């Protein structure tokens, strides 16, 4: 998976190191000379791309159109928000992750700026990138039982396998349960004859294998071909 990291601070370099150790393709953009000097001691030269990460030409030369994830890790919350927004709206990057520098700005890091995940710890950053992409558009909301089970959420798109099928007729994974459905802003208690509709937000509890199967049932048809 190709991850593009904007910014070269300590968080960004640590994130790049973790992702490389997990055999992901990584490119990190940085323009400050003193920071670049440090990065060249910490990361392989081919990972580092010199340039201003908020410059569209630099982003395009760094191959942002091919990125599966943009991790905005600059020292400016304004730049991180702008990067997430343009990554999605201009370059159609599937997943955006924004680093919050000032906790008072955390409320800005949401869907208005196309921030999929807002984080402030590098280790959580790297693990969520892997998990979020492995489940397509499904989002992990909460870990249960020391990580064995997760509360996951999926907003059902057009073309999903589960559309128009009653819950009782779906071949749900054995270690999973549909907790609730949010439809048009209202909570819908799932019954055996409940059928899923486009735009339904489904909350479910599942183990890791079950979450992947639920992502296949409720996600975009091409999601797992892209990852």
What features would you describe in this structure?
The chain has 227 residues and is an alpha/beta fold. Helices cover 30% and strands 25% of the residues. It has seven helices and eleven strands. The chain has helices at 10-21, 33-42, 56-61, 77-89, 122-134, 208-218, 223-226; strands at residues 2-6, 25-30, 48-50, 69-72, 95-99, 117-119, 139-144, 149-155, 176-183, 186-188, 201-207. A six-stranded parallel sheet has the order 3-2-1-4-5-6, with helices on both faces. Strand 9 and strand 10 form a beta hairpin. Helix 1 crosses helix 5 (122-134). The longest helix has 13 residues, at 77-89. It is elongated and about 60 Å long. The termini are close together.
How widely separated are the two ends? 7 Å
Q: In order across it, which strands form the biggest sheet?
A: 3-2-1-4-5-6
The pLDDT mean sits at 85
Order of helices and strands: EHEHEHEHEEHEEEEEHH
Q: Measured on Cα atoms, how large is the radius of gyration?
A: 19 Å
| Number of helical segments with 4 or more residues | 7
Per DSSP E runs of 2 or more residues, the count of β-strands stands at 11
Coarse shape = elongated
What's the main sheet like? 6 strands, parallel
Helix content: 25-40%
Poorly predicted runs of 5 or more residues: none
Helix/strand class = alpha/beta
* Strand percentage: 25-35%
